[in-house]
Structure formats: C-alpha cells, structure tokens
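Input.
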Amino acid sequence: MSDGLDPGSGAGQTHVKRAVADDCAEFALPLIDRWAGWLANPRARDPQTGHWWSWVGGPAAYAYPEATAWVVQSIAQLRDHKHLFSHSPQVADLIALGDNAAATLAQCAQAGFLQRHGRGYAFDTAVGLASLLAWNPHHPAIVDLRRGLDAFLTERHAVVGGPRWGESQRGHRWSAVWGPHLAWLAIPLRKLGETQLALTVAAQVRTDHAALPDYAHALAYACEGQAAVADLDPQARQWLDLGLARLAEQADRAGVRADRRQPSPLRADATAQAIALAAQWQGRSPPTHSNSPPKSPRAPIWDADQEARGLTTEAYLCTPQGGKRRSDAEMRPKRGIAAQWPTLSSLAALTTISGAVRYEPGSPCANTWCTAMAIDAALAVLNASADDGTGGRA
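Output.
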C-alpha cells in the first residue's frame, strides 16, 4: 500500500475519468509542491560536499553530482514557471538553493567532468552541462564541462579509463560503455548552438548501436537524445519512433517496467521520462506511419496498436540508419502493444509521505534523481496541457 497520494480514491470515478483528471494542473501542482519540498529539505543533501544524496533511507547512499545536476535542472524549470507557484513556500525554498547548487556543480567542473565513485562519466558531464546552461547560460563552469565533453567524444568512451567503442565491454554496466544512452549528449550541444555536432553525435550513436536497449532507463535517455535533433534529422525521428514504441511495450497505466527481457519491477525514473516524452511530443507532427497525433497529453503519444502495425510495414523495412533490414527481429515491436501510457498518478503512487519518489514499489529509498525527474515530467505535462488547451496554466 502506497503512503503517497491516492488520486483514484474518489467514489464512482471511472478509469477514463481518472485518466482525464490525472494530469491537469489541479493534480500536478500539489505533487510538484510535495516533490520540491522534499528536495529542499537539508536532509536530502550531504552537508560536507553540498551535493544531493543519491537517495535517503536506503543502503550505501552517496553524494551524487549527477543527482545534483538533475535537481539544478528542475530548479531552473521551476524558476521559469514560478508564476504557477507564487503561493508555494516549498518551491520557493528549492529555487533559493539554485545558485549554491550550481556552485557545487562548478567545483566538479574544474576536473572537466562529473564523477561517480571517483570516475568521470560522459553522461553525467552532459547532464551537468545541460543543467548549468538551464540555470545560467553564462556560468563560467560551462567552458570546463564543454571541454571535458570533447575528450569523451574524441575517445568514444563513456567513462574515464573505461572501454572505448569497439573494445570488449564484457563485465561493464550499461552506463560505463559507449551505448545508445549517450545520444543524450546531443541535448547540451544543441542548447549551446552546436547543432551540427549534436546531429553528428546522435547519428554516430545510431550507427554504433542499431539495436534498441532493453533496459527502459537507458532507452528513455536514448529517446531524449534523439528527440533533441528529431526536428532536423528524419533518421533520428525514425529511431525515436521505434524507441517510443519499445517503451510502450514496457509501459502501462502503473508505470514503465525496468527491463523487457525478464519480469522486472516498475521504475520511477523511466516512468517519469516516458511521461515527459509523451507530453513533449503529443502536439508535434506525428510519425510518418501514423495518421494523426493525439490531442491529449494524458493518452499514449499515438495509438500503440496502430503504431505496432505501422512499424511492421513502413518503419520496420528500414534500419534507423536508413539501410534495408533483413533479420533484425530483435528490433521488431510485438503486435498488440498495450494502449496505455503512464500518467502522473503513476508517480503519485510512488511518492512517500515526506514527498520523495521511490525508485520502485516497495523500495526503502527516497530517490533524488527520480524526484527531480518527476518534477520535470509534471512541468512537461503542464506545458503540453497549456499548448493543447486542456487545463494547464503554464
């Protein structure tokens, strides 16, 4: 039983009415208040380094620069939407931490990268760069992180001292190898105005990795990165379409499952990412194999069954690199993808009494990056609702 909010407790609510009510401003804003209040609590931060903890309440928590970067990004978005939170002391308290949080990241930037357990990571560095650009595009630490990102791109490795592309990756976690998730590097590059390099990075990752990740969190990162250039590159858009269809295979109204290869729990981070992706893309031009985009951010991006049928006819005939597909059955989505997509109620069910988002159902960990990603997802929903005229006030 969740100790978070229970959005479905109203008597007589039908499933449809609940879905329609889930992501309106009246539902999203109180959730953001709770999440912001937990992130603003000093207990969520390491008093020695100033970084946010990876999580609170579970084993082996550590001061985590990447988590700090996700929080800074959320703070920047909340500041840009502060007109929605004029009566929220929780949001005001979190926004007030922005300068100090950015300064904490800047200390890491002196090394040229963000570290985790003493090792510099390309992905973490990209998140740090994107967050500082969001908070203050003229922050001096941006130069250091941008220089560090170049080193990763030149060496084509995900972690300092880790395997380069083409070397054996056996025994390394997905985050420590040059994988599809590193398409995310295109996001800060695009923000910096380095559009051609962003396109090159996304294309290089597609070339290096034709197969979609099975791990939902990595897949969502890859989708986010390809989405950064999908308006300019049809092959990025095709990869994004395939990635979102794969996410749909792992998703239902409760959330996104961690791994499609085996029974696995719901994961809050991938769920938040899926919600944000749906909200961000629901109002844009549809995939080439879809007839019309949906008009509500509360539904899947498009009808998933129609999507599966389309992918087996048009998109499936070509690889994401544009070549003819032969026997790559692993890439082919299954028919009958669930036509459900998670909503903010999925994250509400994972929210603790104190306002943090759990990593997964039953986890003792109040997770920092999941909570920050939940805020980003809710703001994406509000923006989509405002664009769509469905009740948001962004």
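The first strand starts at residue 55 and ends at 56.
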